[in-house]
Structures are given as C-alpha cells and as structure tokens.
Amino acid sequence: MLDIKDLHVSYGKENILNGLNLSLKRGETLAIIGESGAGKTTLGLSIMRLTEGNVKGSIIFDNKDILTFPDRDMQALRGNRIAMVFQNTNSSLNPVIDVLHQVAEPMIEHGLMNKTEAQEKAMHLLERFGLSPERFKSYPHQLSGGEQQRVMLAMSLANDPELLILDEPLSSLDVISREELGSHIMNLGENCTRLIITHDLDAASRLSNKLAVLYGGRIVETGPVREVLQKPRHPYTRALIRSYPNMTSAKDLQSIKGRLSRNISGCPFHPRCTQAIDICSHKLPDFKYYERQGVACHRGGIVTLLATENLSKSYGALKAVDSVNLRIEAGETLTLVGQSGCGKTTLSRTIMGLCPPDGGRVYLKGEEIQKRGQHFYKRVQMIFQNPGESLSHRLTALEAVIEPLNIHLVGTPEERRQKAINTISEVGLPQTDSFLDRYPHHLSGGEMQRVSIARALVLDPELIIADEPTAFLDASMGAKILKLLLKLQEQRGLSMLYITHDIAIARKVSDRMAVMFAGRIVEEGLVSQIVTAPQQPYTRQLIKAASALHKY
Hints:
The protein is an alpha/beta fold. Strand 9 (210-215) and strand 10 (218-224) form a beta hairpin.
C-alpha cells in the first residue's frame, strides 16, 4: 500500500531524512520509534505533503507517487484516503469551532455527505471514542488533553481513510486515558492501515505488531515487535530499550552516550556506538535481513565480545567450573549470580588466565584465546573483590594506576602520568599531589576500590570483569561504586561481567543474568524474565532470600 524509496528531506543545509526506505502493507500496523529529532514527525508530514523542507525520492501510495501529484489531487487525497493525527492537538484543532462541527467538516469538505449526515456520523464517532454527548458543543480549550486526542482521532477517521498516521497518539496522557485510547486505536479494524510515530516504546508495543527503528534519518532495524524489543540486533535499539522505564526490571535507566549528529559520513550511529570499527566511520551499512529482523550494521548487529565454550576447572574431585558456556555482548552488562562457593570467582579467574582451565575454550571477538598476553589484557581487565589485596602496598595511588601503562609501554612517561591522573579524576578521586602520593593503607575502602577501578580502566579495555566490587563496602559507598560503574559503562561503551551473590544487586545493574549453581549455569536470560518468572527452584530460592525491607 505504501512504499517509500530513497526519501531525502532537508531544511536548508540540515538533512533530516537521508535515503529512507520503508514499506507498509495494506492492513498492517507499523510503529516508527526513535529519539526526539530522529525525523519521525518529518516522515509523517512528508507522506501528507505538509513539510516545508526540500523533499526528494518517492512515496508510492496505491501504486502512484504522491510527490508528483498536483496540489489539487493531493488535497483530495489528504484527509480522505490518507489522514493524520498530529502530536500537538492545540495547534491542530480550530479554537473557534466546536468539536462536533470540526469532526463533521472533513466529510462536508470532501463532498461525501451533507451537513446533517456529517453531523450524525460525527456524533457517532465522538461517542465511539468515549466523548460524552454533553461535550459535543465544547470548544477545544474546554476539553482535557485526552478528550482533545479523542476528537482528533474521530476527525481523522471521519472519511474512513485507508492509511492513518498517528504522531505520538498517547503522549502526555495519564495511564488510564492511555489504556482507553490505546484500546480504541487497536480496534479500528483490518481495513485501516496504521503508521504509529512515537518515542514511547510502551505505545509502540501496545499499538503495533511491527517496529521500525529510525536513527539519523535512516531505518536501522525492523522486525516483529516482540522480537525487536526482547532481542534487539542493533546497538541503538538496545540503547533505546535501556533508557525506557520498565515495570519488570529495576535496573537504573541508562541514557545513550553522546548526542545525535547530522550530516556525518558512514553509519549515522557510529560516534555513539559501543562496537564501531573503522569501516563504520566512512561507509554506510547495507540493510540486511537475519531471519525475521532486518538491521543496518556493518557487523550484522550486536556482536559477542567474549564467550566461553565448555570451560571447566577442578580442584581434585571438586568441579568448581563445570562445562560453562557463557557469552558477553559488546556494550552489555551480564551478571553472574550464585551463592558463595558456586564457582563464580573461579570462573572469572579462569577466563582471565589466573587459573589454568582443565578444558574448554575462551573466545575474544570470535578468536580463541589460548595464551593470555598483552593483546588480551589490554582489552579485558578485572576489578577484584578485595581492593586491599589487589593493590600493592609498595605503590602509591598514582603509581598503581600508571603501572599497567608502563607494562604495555603506552606513550611517553609524561603521557602515562597525565592519562593516569585523568582516569583517577574520572572515577571521582582528587588530583592533588597529597592524594596521589598516598599508599593504600592511607585510603578508605571506597577510595581503594576507586583506585582499583581506575587501574582497570586506564588501558581503555572493552570488557571489565567486576568480582563482588562492593562486598567490602558499606551500603552507601557500595551504591556509589555501582553508580560509578554504570556511568563509566555508559560513557565508555564498556561491556561488563558483574559477579555477585546478591540477586537484588544484579537486578539493579544488569541487562542479562546468568545463575550459577555447583559450577554450572542453571538459568540465563533477560533480567526481567528471570526475576518475574524464574524457571529453576534455585533461582526462586535466591530471589526469596534477596535483600528486602520488610513491613512490620
């Protein structure tokens, strides 16, 4: 029904849509999601031929390119076969005409009904969308935001359009009004093809069965709603989901590092991406399909940074790590949860090469790592449980952070010193000589752990393994360290394997969770799935025993 090909829209020198391609079948409901400024509303206005920008490309509706239509033909199409519910109801409704006459107006304007017939249908539509008859003669300013949105929806459906474009249809509404209006939109019937434009993931999942993710004027991912939201392939889609409040997860919200930039070469998302490579900065990725999801990414979507295959480690008859298969994706936090003695720390030390494995393999970016050397340790670093044991008492705070740079011969001595000081500042510690010259026994527990974090970060690793980094700290300081790690992950695009025995903490920091028992991974998945619907009795036991404030 609708086929958009190579659509470009610009305002002066600023490109808003950059070669956008999109198809919508008759009867289909598609939601376009993305940040503010992504070009969503510009897309809707372009289909309606209402944008003031410079438009190139083609918009095929019912086998005809509407960009070539004379104004008279477009006027006959607009509000008749194609209708749009605009985001700003205040500027879309006429303030000096009551709502009944406004809903009737499109039917009269297009010559489909006389005045009496049009008003009868308008009353029916307004009642259908929950507006009480005593409000029919009200003016827009006398209605609430939800009531105005209902009027707009009734007006857009007056002529039974074949294509309905809804721009942020549920925004600024209370939860009850959202539920009611969302139900009305869902019940419009199969004859009405719908294009939902929104930044609201809840509205997108509620109103549509297919998603398209818009970034930098291009579609970067498409697919069925459930698959895209539960298993996003593009790093931008995952970042959008992370930044959206979710009742099934308690993880702190994470924004997307940096900001949207226009008129850049290569992949539009590469300056903010957690897995960008050289080609991303100068070549536009092709759009390819993987099963039912399409994605525009040079790496085929979110990549696996580190993986283990049947990794095992025994101490005599004790199998501390028993055939563990684990994967950590670029830019994500995977939490390893289990009681003391289940093998969590042994697994982390085996991955780091501090304990030789009895069997199995470790892969970094798809390549098997047989011997840990500078190539590995520059990309993977570890924060140990006890900062007092992980820092040498013979090195000052500054010397402890400089040491990895010395080992890897990074830059000149002065450059190493400056980089170490900058990293110490990044983790929230003073840059004064009096602090930098302190030895570990002169530091508090929180300060020592921050020095340990700075030491792990100074080489700019891609993956951090954090083994119970708050275990020796009080709750207040532990919370600060957790927030620091999440902030650094957001700013640097780090991947993190976070190890803890406390599933309540895991719920706050992780994207995915792996539950370990007696050396084996017994359950793995999205945090929301594991916390709300655990499959294993051991997982349910961990959740039951998790920290809670009880009511007395």
